[in-house]
Amino acid sequence: MFTGIIQAVGRIARLEPRGGDVRLVVDTATLDMTDVALGDSIAVSGVCLTVIEFDTHSFAADVSNETLAHTSLGNYKAGDAVNLEKALRLADRLGGHLVSGHVDGTGKVVSIVPDGRSLRWTFEVPRELARYIAHKGSVCIDGTSLTVNEVNGNRFGVNLIPHTVDQTTFSARRPGDSVNIEVDVVARYVERLLSAGEAPRLDEAFLKQHGFA
Where does the record place its Lumazine-binding repeats (predicted)? Predict the structure, then answer.
């Protein structure tokens, strides 16, 4: 699991074709690698990848065809900037929201409009993802935890303060760019419970447990 708080901006060093999929080598820039071990998870622009090789300034991970097809990693090339976050530890602060690193799909940047010192961004997502995005809810874009300001059909807006733009790959994003989208995992579970007819029973049990019924 991750928090959606970006720890460093790295760069794609190499993409090596390996029997149909790709081995990705990432230059980690300022990311502290001293506590990383083989098999650890690192989110690369929101995509959870497993470390198979590493040194003090880089790591390698294998990227499957499934991941290449359903995330923006398939569009990356050597030199492109990526957001990096190491996996959450139980003692860490949860500064953003719980993020799994399992990207639900890609969206695109529609517009970027100045709003004081901040920027208001509008994104468009496929309709099958739009239903999970709610006003004042959480969404993860390229690995960054953000709060939804407004929703209009399959478009939604967020506000980015200067610090977030400066410390992430959003500084290089432009309208039309593709981004990785992970919706709030709670929304997924709520939909599952409702579709299975479990929500009413859970509500009743909760109320009884806490003395309200």
Answer: 1-97, 98-194
Whichever domain contains 117, its CATH number is 2.40.30.20
Q: Do 81 and 110 belong to one domain?
A: no
What residues make up the domain containing 122?
Answer: 105-196
CA pair distance 6, 99, nearest whole angstrom = 12
Q: Is the pLDDT of residue 70 over 50?
A: yes
Domain boundary among 18, 53, 86: 86
Q: How confident is the model at residue 210 (pLDDT cuts 50, 70, 90)?
A: very low
Helix pair angle (185-195, 199-209), 10° resolution: 110
Tokens of 23: 């081995």
- pLDDT tens digits for 127-140? 999 999 999 999 99
Name the pLDDT band for 20 (thresholds 50, 70, 90): confident
Which has more pLDDT, 124 or 96?
A: 124
- At residue 1, the 3 state secondary structure works out as coil
What residue ranges in the chain does DSSP mark as E strands?
8-18, 21-27, 41-44, 47-50, 53-54, 58-63, 81-86, 105-115, 118-124, 138-141, 144-152, 155-160, 178-183
CB 80 within 8 A of CB 113: no
d(CA 170, CA 149): 17
> What amino acid is encoded at 146 in this protein?
L
Q: 121 pLDDT exceeds 90?
A: yes
168 neighbors 10 (Cβ within 8 angstroms): no
Mean pLDDT for all residues in the chain: 91
